Amino acid sequence: MPWLILFILVGLPLIELYLLIEIGSVIGAAQTILLSLVTAALGITLVRRQGLGILARLQREARTADRLGVSLVHGFFLAFAGLLLLVPGFMTDTLGALLLIPPVRLWMGRGLVTGLARSGGRSHTVIIIDGEVYESSTGPKSEPAEGETEILPPRRRP
């Protein structure tokens, strides 16, 4: 994790600076700045247009409880795309533009959910203090004795 933070704070700006210098040496400084501003404005316009559609869909699905997770994934990655498009540079603009494509957002969402499920299953411990535990197949479980703490191993989903 520290390496990721170091890359984001130091490596990403250095890569962006390198790309800006290289592209500027080919097409000129003024055109590079103009291109960076145009991609940011175009990206923000697309994010706003898609974001309003997703917001309306989220509200509709929240009322009907229909596929809310998919819309949340789209909304999360669309907001992240907007952030990437605001940062000046061609690499972040490219990544932001890729996140404007709905299948790419779904693919990234599946990867994120899978990664979170894997990491959450290993380091997750359930601790119940003065409570009752009900298993769906066995009914009520006996209560712990006075002052006793019950520690259960992590549950694995099939």
TrEMBL record:
Organism (species): Eilatimonas milleporae
Keyword Nucleotide-binding: no
GO cellular component: a single term: membrane
Species classification: Bacteria, Pseudomonadati, Pseudomonadota, Alphaproteobacteria, Kordiimonadales
Protein name (Swiss-Prot/TrEMBL): UPF0716 protein FxsA
One matching Pfam family: FxsA
Region annotation (Disordered) ranges: 135-158
Transmembrane parts of this sequence: 27-47, 68-88
Keyword tags: Membrane, Transmembrane, Transmembrane helix
PANTHER family: UPF0716 PROTEIN FXSA (PTHR35335)
Domain of life according to the entry: Bacteria
